[in-house]
Amino acid sequence: MIRRASRRIRRVVGRSRRVARRARLVARVARWEASRAAGGVDRRTLLTALALLVVAGGVLSAGVATDVVGLDVERDVYRVGVDPGSPYADAVEADPALTAVPVERATLGSTADLIVRGVRADDGGDPAGVVVRAVDTPKGEAAAASFREAVEAHNERLMRAESNGTAAFPVAVTLRYASRGSALDDGATVGGTSDPSDGGTDGAGTEDADGTASDDGSSDSGAVEESGSDGDDDSSVDGNDGSVGDGDGDDGGDGDGGYGDDGAGGDGGDGASDDGASDDGGDGDGGDGDSWAVGNDGGSVSLAVPSLGGGAFGADSTGSPGSITPPFPFASLVLAFAFLVPMNFLAQAYGSSVLDERTNRRGEPLLVTPLSPTEIVAGKTLPYVAVAVAVTALIAVVVGSGPVSVLAVLPIALTFLGATFVGAVFARSFKELTFVTVAVSVLLTSYAFVPAIFTNVTPVALISPLTLVVFDLQNEPVSVGEFLFATGPTTATAVLCFGLGLGVYREEDLFTQKPVTRKFLDALAVRLATVGEGVRESPQTGITARVPGRVRGLVAVAFLTACTIPFVFVAELLTVAVLFALPITVSVPALLIVIAFVEELAKSVHLYAGFERGVLARTDRVAVAVGLASGFGFFLAEKATAVVQAVGLTELYVGRAAFGSVAGVSGLPPLVLVGLFLAPLALHGATASLSAVGARRDRTYYALALVAGTLLHAAYNVGVVSLHG
Amino acid sequence: MIAVAGLEKTYGGFSAVVDSTFSVAEGEVFGIVGPNGAGKTTTLKVLAGLLEPTAGSARVAGYDSTDPAMRHHLGFLPEESPLYEEMTANSYLRFFADLYEVPRSVADERIERALDRLDLDHRDRRLGDVSKGMKRKVAIARSLVNDPDVLVYDEPASGLDPVTTNSVLEFTRELRGAGKTVVFSAHNLYHVESVCDRVVIMNEGRIVARGTVDEIRRRHGETTYHVYTDVRPAIDAKAGDGDTADVEVADVGDSEAVGDRYRTVVPSMDAVDRVRTAVTDAGGTVVDIRTREPSLEDVFLDLVGRPMPGRRGGAGTEEDDRRDRPGTETGEGAE
C-alpha cells in the first residue's frame, strides 16, 4: 500500500518535473520570439512608436485625472445664467455641456446663451416658477435642448435616489379594448408606456387631462408652447399648479404617469399653460430669445420638467447632436472598439513571424530539436498573447472598464491569433498572408463589433464577447452563463484554429507550396486514424492514441466532427445575426438552408480528406461506418448548444429556427420528446453517410452527395420549425 | 547506429523513396549520392525525424526516427542554412543549446570549441551581416551544440568556396575521428570519395549501388585503356593498304585528336593490340598507353544515365585527361 502510494507520488513528481521542464523550453522559445520580434523593428521606428505611446498615454492619463476623457465633445459649450441657489443650478452643474454663470452677471447673447430666472408670485412671495430664455439663434435652441435634457437627467437621478420606488416611478395603466385587427380610432398604439421616462416627458398612449394629447394621436408631450409673449420672443410655458400631474384638466394625473407628485405632472396636458408662470412668460428680461416658464410647487423644491422637445426622435426635436440619444450604447461601443484595434496589429506581426519561419526554411532546425510543434507554436504565440493581455488591461484602465472586459477580450485576441496562425501556415507567400490577415481582421472585427451594437436590443448580441465589454462599460452585471455563452465559442474556435494549423506544422507542409485546399485536407486527415483494410497505419497521438485499435478510427471521426461544433455554432449565430433583420418570410427559409449546408459540410469534409489522403479505405462499408460515426459525434456535440436557452436566444423566431432542437419542446408528450431527441441522430447519421459514400468516390460525387444531404437536412429543418410553430 | 529497412516515402502519388534499406555503423562516414530528385534529401529528413516514413522504418541511435527522444542524439544540417539573421552567432547557438537543455557552462565551452575549430570570426556580429561561408559554419556548429552521436548533413559544402569546402570536409573527417557517425549527401562526387567510408547511389528513389567507393567502382565500372598514337588509326588505315585495321579499330571506338596526338579508348588489352597493329601497319607509332580506373562519377553515369548536376558529362573531356592515371604500360608503345 505504502509502496504503491510512494510509486504514485514518484510518478506525479516525475510528471510535474517533466511539465516544468517543457514549460521552461516553451518559455525559452517565447523569450527568443519576443526578442526577435522586438529586434525586427528598427530603433528609430521603435523610438517613434514609444514616443507616440507616451504622448497618448499622457493625454489619456491627464484626461482620466481631470475626468475629461470621454466623448464630451460639447463640454462647456453652452453658458447658462442661473442663480446658484436655484435647484436648476444643480442640473446645470451636472451636465458637462453646460457652464453655469451667475444670473446677475448673465447677459443673453454675450455672456450667456440661456438664462434661467426665478419668477415670484404676484404677491412677491416665494418663487412660483422660472422663466427660461434662450438666444434666438441655432445655438440658443441647442442650449435650450441641452438644458432640457440636463433637467430631465437631473430629475431622473433624483427619482432614482428616492427610496420610495413606487412613488418615484408610478405606473399608469390604461385599458382599452379593441376588436382584433381593428385600428384604434385615434391612431395611438395599444397599451400605455411602461417606461417611466416616457411617462415623464410624454403623454402618448394615455388619457390626458383634457384629452388633447392623445386625441390628436400625437406622441407629443403635454408641454405647452406659448409664443410671442413679448414681441419678438417666443415663449413657452410649462405650467404647474402643484397638483399631481394635472394640468388644468379633470384627471391630469393620467396624463403622464411621470415623475413625482408635483411639477412633473405638468406635462400631463396643455392646460398647464393656463397657470403657473405662464402669464409671466413674456416677462423676461428682454432681449432676443425664446423663453418658457417652468412651474414650481408652492415654494417647495420642485424640479418641473420643461419637456418641450418630445424626446430625441420627437417630431419637433431641435438641438445639438448631443441631444440625440440613440438606442445603441454609442459611447460604450466606441470605447469597446478600442479593444479591437490592437488585435489587428498583433495579428499582422504574428502572421509575419510565423511565415518568416517558413521563408527559406528558416524554422527547419527548430523542428529537429526535441521540442514538439505544439511547444514551438506555444512559445512563439505566448509573447503576442502577453502583449494582447497587457494592452487590453491598459485600455481597460484608461476607458474605465474592469477585469470582465479583459477576460472577454482575451478570447477575441486568441481567435485573432489562431485564425492568423492557420492563415500563415496555409499561405504560400507574404502576398497571400496579407490577404489572410486582412480577411481575418475584417471578419473578426465585424463578428466582434456588429453584434455588440445590439447589446441593449437583442440577446443575439451575446454571440460577441465584445458585448460583455459594453456591459462592463455600462456597469451592468454579467452572469456566468452569459460570459460562457459569449466567450465559449470564440475560445473553442481559437483552440481549434491552432489545432488545425498544428496539423500541418510539419516539414512536408510548412516548406512546400501546396495549395491551401490540399493543406486544409492534410490538416484534417492528420487528425484521423485509419479505418478499413489496406490503408496505412500511422502513429497515433492525442486522444485517439488512448482508444483501442478496432474503434480508434471511428472515435477519431466522431471526435473530429464534434470539434467542428464551435465553428458550426459561430457560423449559425452569424447567420442568425445577419438574417434576423430581414422579413421572416425571407430569413427563415434562407436560414434553414444555410444551416443545413454548414452542418453537412462540418460532418463530411474531414471524411473527404480521409478518403483523399488514404486514411480511410475507399469502400461503401467504411463510408457508411464513418458517416454514422460522424453523425453521432455531431449529435452529441450539438446537444451542447442547449446553452442558447440560457441567454434567451430561442426567444427570437430565427433563434428557434436555428436552434429548434433545443427550443420549444416543453409541453410535448414524452414519446414525442424521445422521438424529437433521437430524430436528429438519425438525420445526422443518414446525411453524413450519404456524403461519405459520395466522398469515397471522388470530388464530384462528394459535391453531389453534399447537396443531396443538405436538401434532406433542410427538409427536416422545415419539419422541425413547423412542429415548433 | 543507423538502420533503415524497407523505407518508403510518398508525397501524394509521387514516390520519393522506394524500398530503401541500408545501415551505418558507429563512427562511419556514410555518403548518399544521386541526381536531383533521387531521394537523398528525403532519406536524410526521414533520418532526422522531419518526415514520417510512409512505410518501413528508420532507427537512429536506437530510437525510431519519429521518436522525439532520438533528437537529443542527432545533429542535422539542412541543405540550406538560413539563420535568424537578427541574432549573433553566439546568441543563436546558445538559443539552440538551451532547447537541447545543455547546461550553460557546457554549452559555452562547446560553442567556443566549435567556433574556434571552424575559424569563425565575428561571433558577435548579426548573422545577417556575415558571409555565406560563415553562415554555413554557424549552421555546422549548431548541429554540434548537443554533442550528438549521429550527424546528418545534407550537402554540407554546397555553394562554398574551395577553401571553406576543404575546411568543412576536413572537419567532417575529424568528426569521424571523434567517433561520430556521419551521414551526408553531396553533389560533388569528389567530396564523397574523399570523405566517405561507404556510399549508396540513389536514382529515382531507389538505391542502385552500395558499398565502399572501390567496391562500387569494381562492381559497376570498367577499366579502360587509352592508346595515344601519332596517326589516326582508322583514317590512316583506310588511306593505307587495307580494311582490316579500319574494321578492328572501329570496333573499339573512334579516335579523337588530343593535341598533336590521337587517342583511342579501348576496353581490353586485346583491343590495344589490334589498335597497335593497325597503327603500325599504317606507318604510325603508338606513343603512349594509359590505364584508366573508373571514377565514381563514371559509375554514376553508367548507373544513372545522366551527368551530375553542374558537371559536364561524357567521356573524353579535358577533365578526364587530368584524371587519367599513368598506366602500367606507360611508354610501352614508345617505339
What's this entry about, in short?
The complex is a heterodimer of chains A (725) and B (335). With 725 residues, chain A is mostly helical.
Question: Can you walk me through this structure?
Answer:
- The complex is a heterodimer of chains A (725) and B (335).
- Chain A has a seven-stranded mixed β-sheet.
- Chain A has helices spanning 2-39, 43-65, 87-94, 138-161, 165-168, 196-201, 212-215, 330-358, 364-368, 373-399, 403-426, 430-453, 466-473, 480-503, 507-510, 516-525, 549-563, 565-579, 584-612, 620-639, 653-658, 670-695, 699-724, and strands at residues 78-82, 98-102, 114-120, 127-134, 224-227, 234-238, 290-295.
- In chain A, helix 1 packs across helix 10 (373-399), helix 10 packs antiparallel against helix 11 (403-426) and helix 18 packs antiparallel against helix 19.
- Chain A is mainly α and 725 residues long.
- With 335 residues, chain B is α/β, with parallel strands linked by helices.
- Chain B is built from twelve helices and 14 strands.
- In chain B, the strands form three sheets. Chain B has a six-stranded mixed β-sheet, with helices on both faces. A four-stranded antiparallel β-sheet of chain B has the order 2-1-4-5, covered by helices on one side. A four-stranded antiparallel β-sheet of chain B has the order 12-13-11-14, covered by helices on one side.
- The N and C termini of chain B lie far apart (57 Å).
- Residues 235-248 and 309-335 of chain B have low confidence and may be disordered.
- Chain A binds chain B through residues 21, 25, 28-29, 32, 36, 39-40, 359-362, 364-372, 506-508, 536, 538-539, and chain B through 11, 45, 48-52, 54-55, 66, 68-69, 71-72, 74, 76, 78, 80, 82-84, 86-87, 95-96, 98-101, 139, 142.
What proportion of the residues of chain B form beta strands (DSSP E)?
A: 15-25%
Tell me the span between the first and last alpha carbons of chain B.
57 Å
Using only CA atoms, what is the Rg of chain B?
25 Å
Helices and strands of chain A, in order, run as HHEHEEEHHHHEEEHHHHHHHHHHHHHHHH
In angstroms, what is the radius of gyration of chain A?
Answer: 33 Å
Overall spatial form of chain A: globular
